[in-house]
C-alpha cells in the first residue's frame, strides 16, 4: 500500500514535471512600443502577443514594453534593426522622407475609417514590397482613424485656424500649414506635456486619444475635419525572424493581414466609445465647420497628393500607379467593410 502510493506520487511528479517542461516557452521575443499602454498601438500589441502565444501552444512568449520603456518613437526603427528589441511599432509620420511609400496612405484621399485605411495600406504593401522596409521583417501594418482637431479653445470657422498652434506630424502638419495654422511636429507621448505647458493649444489626430490619453479633459473643443490617417508598421529584427522555426513563422505570417483588420475594426469601435465617454465625463463640444468652410479646407489640402507624388517619384516609386491602386483597394474595402 505504502509503496504503491509512493509510486503513484512519483509518477504524478513526473507527469507534472514533463507538463511544465513542455509548457515553458522555447522562444521569448521582446516587443517595444512608444505610446502609453492604454492606446490602440499597444492594445493591438497585446492582442498579437496573446494570439501568437496561443497559436504556438505556448512555444513563443512575447514580452511587451509599452510607453517607450524599451525603445522610444524616434529610435524605434533603428533599435529594432540593431536588435535592441526583437519587434517594434512605428508611426511612419515621425520621420518625414524615410517612408515615402507608406505616406501614400497619409495623404488626403478620403479614408473614412481605420478599417478601410488599414486594409488598403496592407494590400498596397503586399503588392509593392517597398524598399523602405528592406532592413526589417514587416509583421503587420495599420492606420489611425481619420484626424480631427482637439483644441483648448473652440475653432468654429476656417479663419479660426490662422496662427493656431497645433501638434501634427507628417502630412498632417502640411495640412495645417495649408490652413494657415502653425503646426509643431512631435511624437504622441510628448503631446500631453506640450498641451499642458501651452507649447501647443491643440492637436490633430484621431479621437481615440480623447479617452486613452485623457485629452478630453484639456482639449474640450473637437472640430470635425475628416483629415488623413497616420500609417503604422510593426517591424521585426531580421536575424530574430530568421532564427524562428518554420511553424512559428507560418503562424506570424498568417496573422499579418488579420491583425491589420482586427486593429482597424478595434480602432473604429473605440473612436465611437471615446467620444461617448468624453461627452459624458467632460462635456466636450463637437463642432461642425460651416459647410463652405469644410469644403474649402478639403480643397486647400488636396494639392498635397501632388506634392507627395513628386517626392515619391524622386524616391523611385511609381507614384501614379500607387495612387491608382490605392483608390482601387479603398473602393474594394469600402464595399466589403462599409464607409
Ligand atoms: C496615435 C499614436 C499613438 C497613440 C495613439 C494614437 N492615436 C492616433 C495616433 C496617430 C498619431 O497621431 C501619431 O502620432 O502617430
Explain briefly what this protein structure is:
The protein is α/β, with parallel strands linked by helices and 339 residues long.
Beta percentage is: 15-25%
Give a quick account of the main beta sheet: strands, pairing sense, barrel closure. 6 strands, mixed
Ligand set: 3-(1H-indol-3-yl)-2-oxopropanoic acid
* Computed CA radius of gyration, to the nearest angstrom: 23 Å
SS summary, helix count: 13
The backbone outline, from C-alpha atoms, is globular
* Rounded mean pLDDT score: 95
Strand order of the largest sheet: 7-6-8-5-9-11
Backbone structural class: alpha/beta
Helix content: 40-55%
Number of strands: 11
**Unreliable stretches covering 5 or more consecutive residues:** none
The H-and-E topology, N to C, reads as HEHEHEHEEEHEHEHHEEHHEHHH
**N-to-C CA distance:** 72 Å
Structural write-up:
The protein is an alpha/beta fold. It contains 13 helices and eleven strands. The chain has helices spanning 2-23, 40-55, 76-82, 114-128, 171-178, 191-197, 208-212, 215-218, 238-242, 246-282, 291-301, 304-314, 319-337, and strands spanning 27-32, 60-65, 87-91, 136-143, 147-151, 165-167, 182-184, 202-205, 221-227, 231-237, 285-287. The strands form two sheets. Strands 7-6-8-5-9-11 form a six-stranded mixed β-sheet. It has a five-stranded mixed β-sheet with strand order 2-1-3-10-4. Helix 5 (171-178) links the parallel strand 6 (165-167) and strand 7. The structure holds 3-(1H-indol-3-yl)-2-oxopropanoic acid. 3-(1H-indol-3-yl)-2-oxopropanoic acid binds at residues 35, 39-41, 91, 93, 144, 169, 188, 205-206, 208-209, 230.
Amino acid at each position: 500500500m505504502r509503496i504503491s502510493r509512493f509510486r503513484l506520487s512519483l509518477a504524478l511528479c513526473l507527469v507534472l514535471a514533463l507538463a511544465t517542461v513542455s509548457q515553458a516557452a522555447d522562444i521569448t521575443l521582446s516587443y517595444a512600443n512608444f505610446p502609453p499602454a492604454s492606446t490602440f498601438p499597444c492594445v493591438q500589441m497585446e492582442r498579437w502577443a496573446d494570439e501568437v502565444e496561443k497559436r504556438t501552444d505556448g512555444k513563443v512568449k512575447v514580452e511587451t514594453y509599452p510607453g517607450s520603456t524599451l525603445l522610444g518613437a524616434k529610435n524605434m526603427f533603428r533599435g529594432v534593426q540593431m536588435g535592441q528589441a526583437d519587434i517594434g511599432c512605428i508611426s511612419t509620420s515621425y520621420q518625414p522622407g524615410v517612408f515615402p511609400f507608406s505616406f501614400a496612405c497619409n495623404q488626403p484621399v478620403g479614408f473614412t475609417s481605420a478599417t478601410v485605411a488599414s486594409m488598403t495600406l496592407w494590400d498596397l504593401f503586399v503588392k509593392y514590397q517597398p524598399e523602405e522596409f528592406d532592413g526589417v521583417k514587416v509583421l503587420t501594418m495599420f492606420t489611425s482613424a481619420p484626424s480631427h482637431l482637439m483644441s483648448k479653445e473652440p475653432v468654429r470657422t476656417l479663419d479660426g485656424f490662422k496662427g493656431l498652434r497645433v501638434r501634427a506630424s507628417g502630412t498632417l502638419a502640411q495640412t495645417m500649414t495649408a490652413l494657415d495654422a502653425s503646426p509643431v511636429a512631435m511624437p504622441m507621448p510628448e503631446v500631453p506635456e506640450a498641451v499642458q505647458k501651452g507649447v501647443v493649444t491643440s492637436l490633430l489626430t484621431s479621437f481615440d486619444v480623447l479617452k486613452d490619453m485623457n485629452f478630453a479633459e484639456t482639449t474640450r473643443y473637437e472640430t470635425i475635419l475628416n483629415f488623413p490617417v497616420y500609417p503604422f508598421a510593426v517591424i521585426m529584427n531580421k536575424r530574430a525572424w530568421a532564427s524562428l522555426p518554420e511553424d512559428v513563422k507560418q503562424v506570424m505570417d498568417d496573422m499579418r493581414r488579420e491583425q491589420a483588420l482586427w486593429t482597424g475594426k478595434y480602432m473604429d469601435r473605440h473612436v465611437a466609445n471615446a467620444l461617448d465617454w468624453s461627452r459624458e465625463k467632460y462635456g466636450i463640444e463637437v463642432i461642425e465647420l460651416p459647410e463652405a468652410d469644410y469644403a474649402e479646407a478639403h480643397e486647400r489640402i488636396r494639392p498635397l497628393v501632388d506634392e507627395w507624388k513628386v517626392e515619391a517619384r524622386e524616391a523611385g516609386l511609381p507614384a501614379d500607379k500607387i495612387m491608382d491602386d490605392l483608390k482601387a483597394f479603398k473602393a474594394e474595402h469600402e464595399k466589403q467593410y462599409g464607409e
